[in-house]
């Protein structure tokens, strides 16, 4: 346990220079039986998969990291929080051969409200299709690595500087990939669609949860390749992520989505996702790790 002002890194940290780190974003909520971390194991396992893709040998097991996240919440006495585990290359090498660099692990937690704003959750956000393409899958593994986020940051900056709330990225084929930090869902004629992982999107834990919840709720959920104009023609559009949760999109490239208000499927997805993470749905209680 390290106090905030002492939680620093050296300027020769390998990851500072080259983005050689992998990380996660996780949320803990006040649930029916106390504070619970949503799908903690799935997040930690994804971080370990990301480490593997970058030939980093994790110094801790999945169970140790799960336990450490919970302990950190207990010590900080947080009832709800955002949790950021990160594994990154530190001192020992500053060339591009990273094999002698030590692997550092940190877990940080803080309070974080609605990532795209309360107003966005209620009424929907305005999105711009970025002029930057999602990094290609033959340039980087599909992993949550720190360095690749500079791609998302370019897209996000372009979007917010142009007055939008969020960026949507196409991949190098011109088909829909994902948001700068979210997966994307489209609804057309009552069917729920999301791009496949082959579109270059992150294997989102929330994406998986929302697919499962809507499918169990009776909706047809299909993975499908989409083009830019599909964003203009769909009836409803929303984005999912641990930080963004389920955020409706009301406008893309200055075209109104549907009638400009979050639609019934989006509202239903928001509701059942919240019911799941607050422990109101017994069928998904295995997704909660009580602290
Ligand atoms: C680029 C990107 N896509 C999708 C997601 C959604 O992933 P998850 O639902 O696991 O948080 C995130 C957030 O981690 C992200 O950064």
Describe this structure in words.
This protein has about 290 residues and is an alpha+beta fold. The chain has two domains: about 5-110, D-amino Acid Aminotransferase, Chain A, domain 1 (2-Layer Sandwich); about 120-275, D-amino Acid Aminotransferase, subunit A, domain 2 (D-amino Acid Aminotransferase, Chain A, domain 2, Alpha-Beta Barrel), CATH 3.20.10. It is built from eight helices and 15 strands. It has helices spanning about 15-20, 40-55, 60-75, 120-125, 150-160, 205-215, 230-235, 265-275; strands spanning about 20-25, 25-30, 35-40, 80-90, 105-110, 125-130, 165-170, 175-180, 185-190, 190-195, 220-225, 235-240, 245-250, 255, 290. Strands 6, 7, 8, 9, 10, 11, 12, 13 and 14 form a nine-stranded mixed β-sheet that branches. A hairpin with a 3-residue loop joins strand 12 (about 235-240) and strand 13. Helix 2 crosses helix 3 (about 60-75). The longest helix has 15 residues, at about 60-75. About 40% of the residues are buried. The mean pLDDT is about 95. Bound molecules: pyridoxal-5'-phosphate (PLP). Pyridoxal-5'-phosphate binds next to helix 6 and strand 12.
């Amino acid at each position: 346990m390290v106090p905030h002002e002492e939680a620093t890194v050296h300027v020769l940290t390998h990851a500072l220079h080259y983005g050689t780190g992998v990380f996660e974003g996780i949320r803990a909520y006040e649930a029916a039986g106390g504070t619970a971390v949503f799908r903690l194991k799935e997040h930690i396992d994804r971080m370990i998969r990301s480490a593997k893709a970058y030939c980093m040998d994790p110094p801790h097991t999945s169970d140790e990291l799960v336990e450490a996240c919970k302990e950190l919440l207990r010590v900080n006495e947080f009832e709800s929080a955002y949790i950021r585990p990160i594994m990154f290359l530190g001192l020992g090498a500053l060339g591009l051969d990273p094999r002698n660099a030590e692997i550092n692990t940190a877990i940080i937690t803080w309070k974080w409200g609605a990532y795209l704003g309360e107003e966005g959750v209620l009424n929907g956000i305005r999105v711009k299709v970025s002029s930057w393409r999602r990094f290609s899958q033959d340039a980087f593994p599909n992993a949550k690595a720190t360095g690749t986020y500079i791609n998302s940051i370019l897209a996000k900056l372009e979007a917010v500087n142009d007055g939008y709330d969020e960026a949507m990225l196409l991949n190098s084929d011109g088909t829909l990939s994902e948001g700068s930090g979210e997966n994307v869902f489209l609804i057309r004629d009552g069917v729920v669609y999301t791009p496949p992982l082959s579109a270059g999107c992150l294997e989102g834990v929330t994406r998986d949860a929302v697919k499962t919840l809507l499918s169990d709720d009776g909706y047809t959920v299909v993975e499908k390749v989409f083009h830019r104009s599909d964003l203009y023609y769909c009836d409803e559009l929303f984005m999912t992520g641990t930080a963004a949760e389920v955020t409706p999109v009301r406008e893309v490239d200055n075209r109104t989505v549907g009638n400009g208000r979050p639609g019934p499927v989006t509202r239903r997805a928001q509701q059942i996702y919240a019911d799941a993470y607050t422990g109101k749905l017994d069928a998904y209680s295995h997704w909660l790790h009580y602290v």
